[in-house]
Specification:
The chain is an all-alpha fold and 272 residues long. It has helices at residues 2-14, 18-31, 37-43, 49-62, 67-73, 79-92, 98-107, 111-122, 131-151, 155-171, 177-193, 197-215, 230-253, 257-271. The longest helix has 24 residues, at 230-253.
């Protein structure tokens, strides 16, 4: 098994054309072995979108073991690789990526990254959260998704916000009727007023599916327990509180979208 993995990694490193690189990354991703994570992470920075997509798919399949390396990737200056890493985090739904997704969904200058983050916020592994942290985390996700749905200029991002809101509505406890009402009111507003017919249609579908999920009695599903440690949860909580403080500063200065423009200029500068 180790020899097979080594040969797959060598094939990625030795690829001398775009097509061979794509094929090699696809083969490595399909192996679904944790030892492939560093090479898949490296593929995110190659000038080959197809290989990057294959690497993202492979990292999502590997799930939680890939998260520490993905979070480390976010601290680097290669914006392209960082954007792909965010898409992988969004697909995995690990709580350690929550604060990152909150930030990029509302402020990143790349619409593809905001779109992935908005979708990922609704599909977080909420069943992993301890009860005392779940309410704080879901409230932050709700605020971010409502902001994106109301303020984002790109219809594809608002579309993903609808998907995220639908998933979040199905994840929150039935006792949070005010949150459900906020989601339904936002979907109704988008159904009637959004400038994009696709967003309007998706909002209507979300309303119907939320109603169906709420009405039916679903069988109890035994969920996978959280592999995160107490230290991980404390880090998530600290980041949430830090984000809350930063939000207050941004709101005091004006429209939070100003930060998106600043982030974009900084990212372009660091790539030069």
């Amino acid at each position: 098994m180790a020899d097979h993995l080594s040969s797959l990694i060598r094939a990625v490193e030795a690829a001398d054309s775009s097509s061979r690189l794509l094929e090699a990354v696809q083969n490595l991703a399909a192996a679904r072995q944790a030892g492939a994570i560093p090479t898949l992470i490296a593929a995110l920075s190659y000038n080959n979108p197809g290989a990057a997509v294959a690497a993202v798919d492979g990292l999502i399949l590997l799930g939680e073991p890939a998260v520490p390396a993905l979070l480390e990737q976010l601290d680097r200056h290669n914006y392209t690789a960082r954007a792909w890493a965010i898409r992988a985090l969004a697909g995995i739904g690990d709580p350690r990526g929550l604060v990152t997704l909150l930030g990029v969904a509302t402020a990143d200058f790349a619409l593809s990254v905001r779109r992935a983050a908005a979708r990922g916020l609704g599909m977080m592994k909420w069943h992993w959260f301890p009860e005392d942290l779940l309410e704080i985390a879901q409230e932050e996700a709700l605020e971010a998704l409502l902001f994106v749905a109301q303020q984002d200029d790109e219809w594809v991002v608002r579309y993903s916000a609808v998907v995220g809101l639908q998933a979040l509505a199905n994840a929150i406890a039935p006792s949070y009727t005010e949150w459900r009402s906020q989601i339904q009111a936002q979907l109704e507003q988008m159904l009637n007023n959004d400038s994009s017919w696709a967003v309007r249609a998706r909002a209507g579908m979300a309303q119907q599916q939320i109603h169906t999920e709420t009405a039916k009695q679903s069988p109890e599903i035994i969920e996978q327990p959280s592999p995160l440690s107490a230290t991980d949860w404390q880090m998530i909580l600290d980041k949430l509180y830090e984000r809350k403080g930063q939000e207050r500063l941004l709101l005091a200065e004006g429209d939070p979208r100003r930060y998106r423009e600043l982030a974009g200029s900084i990212a372009h500068h660091t790539e030069e």
